[in-house]
From TrEMBL:
GO terms for cellular component: cytoplasm; elongator holoenzyme complex; transcription elongation factor complex. It holds the Pfam family PAXNEB. It is found in: Cytoplasm; Nucleus. Belongs to the ELP4 family. The keyword Cell division does not apply. Gene3D superfamilies: P-loop containing nucleotide triphosphate hydrolases. The keyword Transport does not apply. This is Elongator complex protein 4. The lineage of its organism: Eukaryota, Fungi, Dikarya, Basidiomycota, Agaricomycotina. GO terms for biological process: tRNA wobble uridine modification. Keywords: Cytoplasm, Nucleus, tRNA processing. Residues 140-163 are annotated as: Disordered. It comes from Cyclocybe aegerita.
Length: 439
């Protein structure tokens, strides 16, 4: 009898065909199928949920990080939803005739005060700075409704009724082109409050915050503190209580009140501040540089890039007040926004690259960004020309300005330029005068 090797318990069935051909079939017994086979299972690691504080939310890019609002919804969109906790943000405003850097800091301060966050205000005369901080509209004693931002936009549009371009009636009911983003729900409204520039924070709100140790002033000029002493004050305030988010608001870093600081001192201060924030995941910082320090050539070549390397985010607000040509070309905006670096905690790339609507990186390319300050608020939006195409558009030969039978110049004609933009064409028998404007 022929023996068959059986590597597994079972039975062998042999079927014979013609010409002596046989096929052996190995049949696994039912008991083999019932055996317990080892299977790989991923070890479940219990993840501790992050405590969500008032005025914060979990980052849409990483569930290991919380974000908070800067007080400006359009700026939150540029950052990818808000400023992450344990991160620092630096604003440079090189224009000495405006103070847009400090204006952004006031929004950051007001947002923290409205949400009950703990705030450490560092700079020259903090008490005077607080008196100019914006607050809720005067007609609202509590949190404004979600439709307030839409009402503000309608009020702004009413002033431009005379400048609207008449178009075909079929397009009148179409949705208007939007250049910025806003709060579209009550949940977003509670995350980012709506403030009005014409209102001021009440004194009793400031006094209550100081009595509850939710507001700390660090006067650099009065106390003559060095940058290292300022860092020590900030660290002590962050370590005193971790039950609420801490906002570090630093104004006009590098101004004369800080002393004779060099570029190395400022870089060391910003780098040390970022390292301190990494040890306190419930804190974040927003810093505005002094106008003279915000210049690109102040600290040598690539100065602003260095600032971006030692901080999590760096933005430049370049106002048009120093350049009349840009002011006339873009009358609807007050300056340009330049992005150097953006916060990216727990991620390889900045969440803003795929989450920001204003930047537009999810479509064809990145948009140019600008900002404008209206009567009620500060807005960041995409840079665009007016409907007319700009007021300083170059027109070399406007229609209706040709004198004495004007027309297209013939080949070989020369135009003699005279002062005032008037050209006289030399031709036999006739003299033609044309106006040639060069803006």
């Amino acid at each position: 009898m022929r023996k068959t090797f059986r590597p597994f318990p079972g039975r062998v069935a042999e079927r014979r065909f013609g010409d002596g051909i046989s096929v052996l079939a190995f049949i696994v017994s039912e008991g083999m199928g019932r055996r317990k086979m080892s299977s790989f299972k991923r070890k479940a690691i219990g993840k501790q949920a992050l405590p969500v504080y008032p005025g914060t939310r979990i980052s849409p890019a990483s569930n290991q990080c919380l974000i908070t609002s800067t007080g400006i919804s359009s700026l939150d969109d540029i950052l990818g939803g808000g400023l992450p906790l344990s991160c620092s943000l630096v604003f440079a405003a090189p224009d000495i005739h405006s103070s847009y850097g400090d204006l952004v800091q006031k929004y950051f301060f007001a947002q923290g005060l409205a949400n009950g966050h703990r705030i450490c205000l560092v700079g020259k005369d903090p008490e005077g700075f607080v008196k100019d901080v914006m607050w809720y509209p005067k007609s609202h004693s509590a949190t404004p409704s979600a439709g307030d931002s839409e009402d503000e936009e309608k009020d702004e549009e009413k002033g431009d009724e005379s400048q609207k371009v008449k178009i075909a009636w079929r397009y009148e009911n179409m949705k208007q082109f939007k250049t910025t983003v806003g709060n579209s729900s009550s949940e977003a409204e509670s995350y980012c409050q709506t403030f009005e520039l014409a209102s001021r924070v009440p004194e009793d709100v400031i006094n209550k915050a100081r009595k509850a140790d939710r507001l700390r002033f660090v006067d650099v000029g009065l106390d003559a503190l060095s940058p290292s002493a300022v860092l020590s004050e900030i660290t002590r305030y962050m370590e005193s209580d971790s039950s609420a988010p801490v906002r570090i608001c630093i104004t006009s870093l590098g101004s004369p009140v800080w002393g004779d600081l060099t570029s190395q001192n400022i870089v060391y201060f910003l780098h040390s501040l970022r390292a301190t924030l990494r040890k306190h995941p419930h804190a974040c910082a927003s810093t505005s540089l002094a106008p003279e320090v915000s210049a690109a050539s102040w600290g040598g070549a690539g100065w602003i890039d260095k600032v971006g390397w030692v901080s999590d985010g760096a933005l430049t607000l370049s106002a048009f007040t120093a350049n009349p040509a840009l002011s006339s070309m873009f009358p609807a905006q007050h300056g340009l926004l330049q992005i150097h670096t953006l916060p990216s905690p727990h991620t390889l790339s900045a969440p803003s690259d795929r989450l920001s609507t204003l930047r537009g990186l999810s479509s064809s390319g990145e948009n140019n960004l600008a900002f404008k300050c209206t009567r009620k608020r500060l807005i960041f939006e995409t840079l665009h020309l007016d409907v007319e195409g700009g007021t300083s558009e170059r027109r070399t030969r406007p229609s209706g300005l040709m004198v004495d039978g004007g027309g297209a110049p013939e080949a070989g004609e020369k135009v003699a330029q005279v002062e005032g933009g008037v050209g006289v064409r030399a031709k036999k028998g006739k003299k033609r005068v044309a106006f040639d404007y060069d803006f």
